[in-house]
Amino acid sequence: MNAIEFRKITKRFGGFTANRDLSFSVKKGSIHGLIGENGAGKSTAMKVLFGIHPADSGEILIEDRPARITNPVHAMKTGIGMVHQHFMLAGPETVLDNIILGHEPGRVFVGRKRAEAELRSIAKTYGLDFDRWDRPVSELSVGEQQRVEILKLLYQRSKVLILDEPTAVLTPQEVKDLFGNLIRLREEGKTIILISHKLKEVLGYCDEITVIRRGETVGTRKASETDEAELARMMVGRDVSFTYQGERKMFAGTAEMRPLVRVEGLSIESTTEPLRDVSFELKPGEILGVAGVQGNGQSTLLRALAHPAHHRSRWSGGYQFNGKDHSESDPITLRNDGLGLVPEDRLSEGLLLNQDMTENFLLGQHEDPRYSKNGFLLRAKARAVTESKIKEFDIRPPYTTVWTGRMSGGNQQKLVMARALDPGPTVLYIAHPTRGVDVGAIEKIHDAIVRERNRGKAILLFSSELDELIDLCDRMLVFYNGGVRAEFARPEFDPWTIGRVMGGGDR
Q1: Rounded to whole angstroms, how far apart are CA atoms 487 and 504?
Q2: d(C-alpha 51, C-alpha 202), whole Å
Q3: Nearest CA to 300 among 283, 282, 314?
Q4: Dihedral through CA 198, CA 201, CA 206, CA 212, nearest 10?
């Protein structure tokens, strides 16, 4: 029996067609992967199923019966739940209150004790228990917040669980724990639809995989009967390389040039992720990678280097940028001195979600002489450059007037990357450049990063993907417990050795 079946679903937004005659089915009691390029229509299709967007035509069948889902509340009553890519949680409220919100037991008084007892039973069954149900959600890690979202669906008696890019911001251990939980849910008879860009994950854990390209169904494959190469070809319509294949030139004089970034004995006090005596140099024409399991100091380092003034009260050590002391500078001063930045969190630190693509491309560049003259913005110039970047990075929908809050996560990331790589900066701090990005776009982003390195830019690259660092970097720093555990030159790159150092072992 099919848990869900799409029959010729079409969804339009004005003149843009997000889904066109989309048809596929999901077997009951299975984990079903849904993959495709950024902007292919995966999330839109699931939002149609969850009742957020009404379909313009076509029909959806639930357990082989036609169903018309009018809103998310109706979807939840039908047994369909969704964990969105960006979690829908009330940060100041407790774990318990976030889970029961909208489904409170009792008509007058909220029966928290009864709800907590029920949740403890559900959590124990599925291995999702919490030590304290009264903790504010804002104090939880990203992985723990995701468990809260899954518990919400189980508390609501969801039979079909939709997870949109669930591993995009998780550590490797959290990813392992998540899929262990999903397998248990499948064994209990739940149906799981997994939207993802990570082909290894869908091949490793899904039963079947449906590929969508430009809003249409390309086909469905059993995971046991396909591979990464075929899925990538179905996604983007061409063969895709999974390692960087471009030219890596030596930038003349790198070894003799003065460093553009010099960090000496940098320590920062922090209750969550301190830094301890970090020192390194970054020269023109090289990519220096920062590796490590999340929470070992990399995030603190990036934020400190991008916004030293904010951390100054807890700071010791030296920081020179472009030959100047910048240990007390703000982001605007650093940008004016040649810094381009791709932050860790594109939503809170990199985008204005209620503004269009042109405004977001201008963000932080309003005083740049290329886009400003005599105090007036050259909007036509900015719009033209934005249009060229949309074409270069294949950002969808391809309209400068689209609000970034309505774009997929991968397309938001491509816009942030395009802005950072806009000619001008001499130093680039890039965090997780391909987070939530499809395999075809990964190629373009990797090509762009190495191209900037070949032109003499100095690049500090943070990534949770070790393969990505090994592909792109000239040198690599491995962080553990707030400090640099080891440094590797490119000829020394070995995944097993680096992975051992990331876990606290020796070289």
Answers
A1: 13
A2: 25
A3: 314
A4: 10
Task: State whether 311 and 454 are in the same domain.
Answer: yes
Residues 416 and 469 in one domain: no
Average pLDDT, integer, range 314-328? 93
CATH number where 318 lies: 3.40.50.300
At residue 252 the predicted structure's pLDDT band, cuts being 50, 70 and 90, is low
The Cβ of residue 10 has, within 10 Å, a number of other Cβ atoms equal to: 17
Q: Domain range holding 405? A: 352-423
Q: DSSP per residue over 163-182, as a string?
A: EESTTTT--HHHHHHHHHHH
In the listed set 423, 457, 476, which residue is the last one of a domain according to the structure? 423
Question: Tokens 């848990």 label which residue?
Answer: 3
Mean pLDDT of 154-164: 94
Backbone angles phi, psi at 333, to 5 degrees: -60, -45
Retrieve residue 169's tokens: 């911001």
Smallest CA-to-CA distance from 333 within 312, 358, 354 is with 312
CA gap 388, 383 in Å, rounded: 9
Residue 469 lies in a domain: yes
Q: How many helices (H) and strands (E) does the chain have?
A: 18, 22
| Mean residue pLDDT across the chain | 91
Question: pTM to 2 decimals?
Answer: 0.79
Q: Which of 142, 133, 51 is nearest to 89 (CA)?
A: 142
Same domain for 288 and 368? no
Residue 244, in any domain of the structure: no
Indicate whether 346 belongs to any domain: no
Give the number of other CB atoms < 10 A from CB of residue 84: 17
Strands (E), 364-423: 372-373, 376-377
pLDDT in tens, 70-79: 999 999 999 9
Given 375, 397, 423, the domain boundary residue is 423
Kindly report, residue by residue over 376-417, the tens digit of the pLDDT.
999 999 999 999 999 999 998 899 999 999 898 889 999 999
- Contacting residues for 284 by C-beta, under 8 A, at least 6 apart: 251, 253, 254, 257, 260, 426, 456, 457, 458
Is the CB of residue 236 less than 8 Å from the CB of residue 37?
yes
In order of 38, 70, 500, the CA distances from 12 in angstroms are: 17, 17, 49
Do residue 405 and residue 458 come from a single domain? Answer: no
If one counts every other C-beta atom within 10 angstroms of the C-beta of residue 339, the result is 26
**Statement to judge: residues 415 and 269 lie in one domain:** no
Strands (DSSP E) contained in 107-175 are: 160-164
Q: How many domains does the chain fold into?
A: 3
Same structural domain, 304 and 441: yes
Q: Is residue 249 part of a domain?
A: no
Say whether both 205 and 268 belong to one domain.
no
Tens-place pLDDT, residues 259-312: 999 999 999 998 778 999 999 999 999 999 999 988 899 999 999 999 999 888
β partners of residue 331: none
Query: Closest by alpha carbon to 217, among 484, 405, 82, 32?
Result: 32
Same domain, 133 and 161: yes
